[in-house]
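Late entry, S-adenosylmethionine complex.
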Amino acid sequence: MNIMSVGFYAKFIGNAISKLEISDEDYILDLGCGTGRNACLMRNYLSEKGFILGLDVSEGMGKQFKKKARNFKNVAFKNQRIDLPFSLEDKFDKVFISFVLHGFPHEVRKTIINNAYENLKPGGTFWILDFNEFVLMDMPFYYRIPFVTIECPYAFDFIERDWKKILKKSGFNNFIETLYLKSYVRLLAARKA
Ligand SMILES: C[S@@+](CC[C@H](N)C(=O)[O-])C[C@H]1O[C@@H](n2cnc3c(N)ncnc32)[C@H](O)[C@@H]1O
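Prediction complete; structure with ligand written out below:
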């Protein structure tokens, strides 16, 4: 992402988070939350009544997350896999997943999408920040070479799929999209019916 954004990643992620339509009392679930950078950015839009829960399988990420969020009472981390079915006690207004979904086989992605659906409140929104749909060979070589070199093999079939159709089958509708980085990256919102 740093290569594709020529070092403007921080600006890009800040802009993407500004588009999430966060209300100050939102409950937000961040799937594959990583270091907590995104959670801390989202937290800027919340009051004390809002809440963010980050889930990640990596204990190392958990350590970094907790360190980053140590001063925020309403930002929490849970060491949990997102690729197996789960249902949390709290339900969320928003589920956010950033650069995680493309890294799984397609059947596993469907489980993750079902987890988002299960843990959203009715009318809640699933926000997916990830690669857009595109034809790899149409990508200019100066993007294609780093993409092919760095990305995991599952990313190649991720970019070829019709994500709105897939999300519709899982019960989502009302799609809104914002495109970034020459349209190779998309923020896709999908509403739980
Ligand atoms: C590319 S990083 C993205 C991190 C963060 N969302 C971001 O945008 O900076 C992918 C994250 O997904 C986590 N992850 C991978 N497999 C997972 C799984 N099965 N369950 C939960 N988290 C997982 C990794 O530990 C890592 O933190």
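The mean pLDDT is 96. Will revisit in the morning.
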